Amino acid sequence: MTTQLFAHGTRPDQDAPALRLTGVSKSFSRVTAVQDITLEIKRNQVVGLIGENGAGKSSLLKILTGIYQPDSGTIEVLGKAVKFRRPQDSVAAGIGVVHQEQSLLTNLSVAENIAMNAVASKDAAVKLGWYRWKRLNQEAAEVLSKVGSTVDPRTVVGDLPFVDRQMVEIARALRVDEHTHASPLVILDEPTAVLERDETAILEREIRALRELGSVIFVSHRLDEVMRVCDRILVMRQGRLVADRATSDVTQEELFQLMVGHAQRSPQRSAPQHESETPALEIEGLGLTGTFRDVSLTVHPGQCVALVGTIGSGREEVCRAVFGAGDYDTGTVRVDGKEIRHWRMGKAVRSGVAYVPAERKTEGMVGGLSGAENLTLAKPGAAVSGPLLRPRARKRLAEEWFETLDVRPRDPDLHLERFSGGNQQKVVMAKWLMDEDLKVLVLDHPLRGLDAGAAETVNEQIQAACARGTAVLLIADTIEDALESAHVVVVMRDGEVTATYDLSVESATSLDLLERMV
Ligand SMILES: Nc1ncnc2c1ncn2[C@@H]1O[C@H](COP(=O)(O)OP(=O)(O)OP(=O)(O)O)[C@@H](O)[C@H]1O
Q1: What does DSSP assign to residue 55?
Q2: Which atom of ligand 1 is nearest to the CA of 58?
Q3: How far apart, in whole angstroms, are the C-alpha atoms of residue 305 and residue 475?
Q4: Which of 138, 189, 359, 447 is most buried by a 10 A CB count?
Q5: Is the pLDDT of residue 342 over 80?
Q6: Where in the numbering of this chain does the ABC transporter domain appear (predicted)?
Q7: How many Å is the maximal CA-CA distance in the chain?
Q8: What does the alpha-carbon distance between residue 198 and residue 518 come to, in Å, rounded to a whole number?
């Protein structure tokens, strides 16, 4: 059993790199996801791993965490050759991982969650299913203090802000060092994707500090963040490692070019073209007990209105209420001047309102259907003639959109669950962007998980929808994104609107918005 990886007196080589891959490849039936990767991760370094959607980052991480077995190549951890047949083997070798989606059980305490990775030993805090509470909390406090967290181990995870939850996840991942008694390697797969700006800054600081404890592979789509956090940056493209640079030797523009193959275009916010008297969407005095109150805003055809606020500000819930995916108990919502009552999602779609949720995997797509089927799920458009489906027309439509949004692989017949996260997201977005008659488009974090090049394309498509006269209500990933792409920014705090900036007549800085958010 590989839990004994470094046992029997074979201590890890103290001078060897934390990780060495040589010629590692992995293919699926139609795609080579990872191709001949050779790299070294030194100890006590934070190394960034970046690449376009579908470049192969997740597949490589899955090889390192024992989920996929490589077709060829070798892996060495601290100088010793290893073979990971299952995830426990990778844990036993000292590799911990924090996945994109938070994996803590929110109804358990911090200490209980941390104990779930505990190593069985004769005096472990959890024995035969029995908790030794004092020891459990004490051990958790020790692990947390290693990563600079002062969270009380007795706190129920559900009561913690997201940034603290991420620190608990990292602390838990770090416990792999108890297996090897050597420098651990922690993989952080987009740990900041769900965080807001101020929380991201805290987490970035803590990640930089992790190099004192071991090595880190940090995956992120935000190039500025990668530049701030990492000592070195690895760039993947179409399954291959195309660059391995010291952060000090590379610029953000070069990274973009290495990843995507062309220089970054400067973002443009077009002037709203279709401002008519009748707003496409009008929200007046909207409230839901305990969640948001007295929210009013208008979005004219062709206008993009961004809602900014921290987690808990109520902006997600307002967006859900507009689409009928969530409730409100006071106020009114008007679409195209008509008040909508007993709004449910089906009616919203029929009335020309679309919503792209942040939780695309659970709410936005059907993994067991093909890319083409997902695309035409809501609005079959040209793919139907009367009651009849026209499979060839559907495929043609899908092919066009796969081209426009550069969905990879270009195979609309493939089940959507087989695509990489970012490419799934492009399909979910395309489902609505292809609808030319759309009146209102509600987008909750549309760029989350998209690589910088794809984000640029999706931004252009959002601008194109505005230019066609669609009204866009947007929850942007960052304040900067909101200021860049919206015509109007509405700030929310604790369920209320605290400020509205019409950027066509006044300017606002990130600081102005932050002051009204927190
Ligand atoms: N289980 C699988 N079956 C078939 N193809 C797969 C499977 N897993 C990954 N792929 C393919 O391998 C390629 C690399 O995907 P991977 O998920 O590693 O990309 P990624 O760089 O993590 O992208 P993203 O940033 O979008 O998550 C993609 O073309 C994907 O469709």
Answers
A1: S
A2: 22
A3: 9
A4: 447
A5: no
A6: 19-263, 276-517
A7: 79
A8: 10
